[in-house]
Specification:
The complex is a heterodimer.
Chain A: H1 4-30, H2 36-44, H3 49-58, H4 65-77, E1 83-84, E2 89-90, H5 91-126, H6 131-145, H7 148-162, H8 180-218, H9 221-228, H10 233-258, H11 265-270, H12 276-286, H13 289-317
Antiparallel strand pairs in A: 1-2
Helix pairs in contact in A: 1-13, 2-3, 5-6, 5-8, 5-10, 5-13, 6-8, 7-8, 8-10, 9-10, 10-13, 12-13
Chain B: H1 8-20, E1 36-40, H2 56-62, E2 70-72, E3 78-80, E4 83-88, E5 94-99, H3 113-127, H4 129-135, E6 138-145, E7 148-153, H5 174-177, E8 197-203, E9 207-212, E10 226-230, H6 235-243, E11 249-250, H7 257-264, E12 269-272, E13 282-287, H8 297-306, H9 309-316, E14 321-323, H10 346-356, E15 367-372, H11 378-392, E16 396-401, H12 405-413, E17 419-422, H13 430-433, H14 458-469, H15 473-490, E18 493-499, E19 503-506, E20 509-510, E21 527-528
Parallel strand pairs in B: 1-10, 15-16, 15-17
Antiparallel strand pairs in B: 2-3, 4-5, 5-7, 6-7, 8-9, 9-10, 11-19, 12-19, 13-17, 13-18, 14-18, 20-21
Classes of the chains: A mainly alpha, B alpha+beta.
């Protein structure tokens, strides 16, 4: 029971946070000038009063703001994220429709980033000051500082245009009629560039974090003790240094994991990947409030959930940390 | 021969595809079988139900699914579509259409005169702002028999025959919509039209697939089996898609202007600028004539003189178009070139400003104005910067204001701007696409694309009214010629460039662009040869 109590406390706090986020999101997006009716009139290049009034009535925008908020809140509590009149589909459907593509991209990017980043960070820290370290640091700095979309475009130029190895956009070969494993291979083929691009930025982050943290731990007393005990080098690096150096990495991984569901607008746009980031971005431009709020809601829930998971992971990595704190 | 042209790129692509990708499922080619056309849809259409949404890309896709009674040649001569023939009474008040007898909706129900009556009398009148101003001229709309419809007008309305374009009056199936709430009708998600293609699949964010309608009323048509519309949100990807042959057609503003010439020079691609006559926009700056100093004609003229139209055409629009002379595009009916012209002349501009008493201060600045730039694409950002630089030369300091599409539309509609740019479509006829911006009866706050400059001139009102109701083209021309002279003198706007949109299309496809609505046409006759 004692072990569960802090978790229940956290959960209650989380629910309060999510409720606050819902209200804030709702009010924030109303601060942007223009509404869905204005967006649609702008695109159609024609409008009149009746047209605007019909749209506002249909979107429920003719009611006072506090009523709209109350209705929305009541719906969300019942896990009903509303209906997009613009896309003529329930918001849940729209999000679920994009979820597989999003997760495929972001989780692949996440794994690439975490795996490669930690590996390079460790290598770099173990050979500090030598050529390998310099090269890795240069690489990390370069990709940390380069805008993601530019990396994407250059990757397309190199691998798709000049070398012709990889498809430049899309999630699969449209109209090719692949099924089963052929289709999976086709999707994987399309996934390499976007996941690689998305991963590169985070590779840089994890590399730098791991390296810095490893260097800090490397000269601590307990490492010297381990060495004095005559433990093998590999064992010291894995058990003693890395494990103690992992906390900042876990923190950052927790933050990144929370954003997995939110998608990656830039990468999805450059590679025409049908993910949630684009759905949200389009919804923002079109003032499609229910869709935008829906994505915000799902994303904020995920962030809160992953924060809790991160706290658990701290405890596993370092049993001295108490969840209750 | 064109197919044999080898470039370094195709060689490289070929070489690497055979070596490295032999393990992977085929090279990344999109569907390219016989009779398959891959096109871009940008941005992704919110819906394909053209009755409720006439978005640009909605029209391009839904134009293959829905039809209207007529279609129009490049010079706006009406041609049969769902109507096979028509008659106009000598007094210009009665229009009688004979309909195709074998036309069917995609669900198999026959298309009849009742559908036409329902669409024009009920459906469009309730939901379609552009159609409303046309069909409100009708006294009665009735079905004389299952294949004959008669429209009786309250008074002659000269451009009436121009109303039966696909996006203006798309035919809507009465059996699915009559008596329902149009906006929540479940059929909106599954478009049912009479067109040569049917919706087969729509993977949101990826592509839309249309397939041949075997029951189409055109004998042996359409020739294409499938059409794919690929949703590519990035301009670089769109250019690449055409270059790599993953799509065979781009249109409107799919490509950034700076990419067009390069792609048009590819051996397998042709550039078509015909097929936009119905849209034919003029890029312009609109002045809010309610606010100082834009209420003064001399100030507006000074801005007109201070802008180098040729430079704007060449540097911002990459020479895709022509220098504009006035409110009408030269491709719109009743255009008149004999108007007051504004050649680039900084001295004249300065003289006009001096005359107003706007003398330069110590820093050379006479006055400060705000320019709300158009949010549609990079070109308009460059354009705003160019205007800022140009006007600085005559002592007008410009502050550029930015907004996203919804924000821009809302500010424009509510007169919350000093000057802004715009390029609305003209729909072939001044009564349909031009008068709306200048007649005083159309000054309506909260409504974008009305008379947002607040310009009023009783003579202009009279002339636009006369032009719309005159019976002969000669009389119409007389009214519109005079209106163009007045407007170019009073310049509530600065008309700068007649924008030409480019259609780039693979040379193997023919009979694609065949009418004034070009890529938004049905593609019933489009074919793949070789």
């Amino acid at each position: 029971m004692d072990k569960l109590r802090p978790i229940i406390g956290r959960l209650l706090k989380s629910i309060a946070i999510i409720a606050t986020i819902i209200v804030l999101n709702f009010l924030l997006i109303r601060l942007a000038p223009g509404d869905p009716a204005a967006a649609m009139a702008g695109e159609a290049g024609a409008a009149d009063e009746a047209f605007m009034a019909q749209l506002r009535e249909q979107f429920g925008l003719d009611r006072p703001l506090y009523q709209q908020l109350a209705y929305y809140f009541a719906d969300v509590v019942r896990l009903d994220l509303g209906y997009s009149y613009r896309q003529r589909e329930a918001v849940v459907e729209l999000i679920l429709d994009r979820l597989p593509a999003t997760l495929l991209l972001t989780i692949s990017g996440f794994i690439v980033a975490l795996g490669l980043g930690v590996l390079m960070g460790v290598t770099s820290a173990m050979r500090v000051g030598r050529l390998t370290d310099r090269l890795i640091s240069l690489f990390a700095l370069l990709f940390y500082a380069t805008p993601l979309f530019w990396v994407g475009l250059m990757a397309i130029m190199l691998f798709s245009v000049w070398l012709g190895w990889l498809p430049s956009f899309g999630m699969e070969s449209v109209g090719a009629g692949y099924a089963g494993w052929t289709r999976a291979a086709d999707i994987a083929h399309h996934l390499i560039l976007p996941a690689g691009t998305l991963g590169l930025f985070y590779v840089a982050v994890y590399t730098r974090l791991t390296r810095a943290s490893m260097l800090e731990v490397k000269d601590m007393d307990f490492v010297r003790t381990a060495r004095a005990k005559g433990l093998r080098h590999g064992l010291i690096v894995r058990r003693h240094i890395l494990r103690n150096a992992m906390l900042p990495v876990i923190t950052f991984a927790g933050i990144q994991a929370g954003q997995l569901v939110g998608g990656a607008v830039l990468t999805e746009t450059v590679f025409a990947w049908p993910g949630i980031g684009r759905l949200a971005f389009d919804a923002l431009l079109q003032r499609d409030y229910p869709v935008l709020l829906g994505v915000f809601f799902v994303t904020s829930v995920m962030v809160v959930v992953f924060n809790i998971i991160t706290d658990m992971a701290y405890r596993i990595a370092d049993p001295r940390i108490e969840v209750a704190s | 021969m064109k197919d044999l042209a080898l470039t370094r790129r195709t060689l490289l692509a070929g070489a690497s595809a055979t070596s490295l990708l032999s393990l992977l499922p085929g090279p990344a080619l999109a569907a390219g079988g016989a009779g398959v056309l891959n096109v871009i849809a940008f941005p992704e259409p919110p819906t394909l139900f053209i009755g409720l949404d006439q978005n640009g890309s909605t029209q391009t896709v839904a134009g293959k699914i829905y039809e209207s009674l007529l279609t129009y040649d490049f010079d706006f001569t009406p041609r049969p579509s769902l109507a096979k023939s028509w008659e106009i009474s000598p007094d210009g008040r009665t229009y009688t259409f004979k309909l195709q007898e074998n036309a069917k909706w995609h669900d198999g129900k026959p298309f009849t005169a009742d559908d036409v009556v329902f669409t024009t009398k009920e459906f469009l009148m309730e939901v379609h702002p552009r159609a409303r101003v046309i069909f409100e001229n009708c006294e009665t709309i009735e079905a004389l028999d299952p294949h004959t419809v008669r429209f009786a007008l309250k008074k002659p309305f000269a451009p009436f025959l121009m109303a039966f374009e696909m996006s203006t009056a798309p035919m809507i199936p009465a059996h699915l919509y009559k008596g329902t709430n149009y906006r929540t009708n479940p059929n909106n998600a599954k478009p049912i039209g009479t067109g040569p293609f049917k919706l087969a699949e729509w993977q949101k964010g990826s592509f839309i697939r249309l397939v041949r309608n075997p029951d189409y009323h055109g004998e042996g048509e359409p020739h294409l089996d499938e059409m794919y519309f690929h949703i590519l949100p990035d301009a670089g990807s769109r250019a690449l898609a055409l270059e790599q042959g993953r799509v065979q057609q781009t249109q409107f503003q799919d490509l950034e202007p700076f990419d067009v010439q390069r792609l048009a020079s590819l051996p397998n691609i042709q550039l078509i600028t015909k097929g936009y006559e119905f849209y034919a926009p003029v890029a312009r700056i609109e002045f809010n004539t309610r606010v100082k100093p834009f209420d003064d004609k001399r100030f507006r003229q000074a801005v007109n003189y201070a802008l180098d139209r040729k430079a704007i055409l060449d540097t911002i629009f990459f020479s895709q178009g022509r220098v504009a002379t006035g409110p009408l595009n030269s491709k719109t009916r009743f255009y008149d070139a004999d108007v007051t012209r504004y050649a680039f002349d900084l001295e004249k501009a300065k003289a006009l400003l001096d005359d107003m008493g706007l003398k330069p201060g110590a820093n050379g600045v006479r006055t400060q104005v705000k320019f709300l730039r158009l949010p549609w694409g990079e070109s308009w950002a460059r354009f705003a910067e160019y205007v800022k630089q140009s006007l600085a030369k005559v002592g007008i300091a410009v502050e550029i204001e930015s907004a996203d599409p919804a924000g821009w539309t809302s500010r424009y509609a509510n007169w919350d701007f000093q000057m802004t740019s715009n390029y609305p479509y003209q729909f072939g006829d001044p009564a349909l696409g031009v008068a709306r911006f200048f007649v005083s009866s159309n000054i309506r706050k909260g409504v974008a694309y009305s008379n947002n400059t607040g310009y009023t001139n009783p003579r202009v009102d009279e002339l636009f009214a006369a032009g719309a109701s005159a019976l002969s083209d000669a009389e119409r021309q007389k009214a519109y010629s005079e209106v163009q002279k007045i407007l170019t003198d009073e310049v509530p706007m600065a008309w700068l460039v007649e924008v030409d949109f480019p259609t780039l299309i693979d040379k193997r496809f023919t009979d694609t662009v065949v009418s004034a609505i070009g890529v938004n046409e049905t593609y019933r006759r489009a074919r793949k040869v070789g």
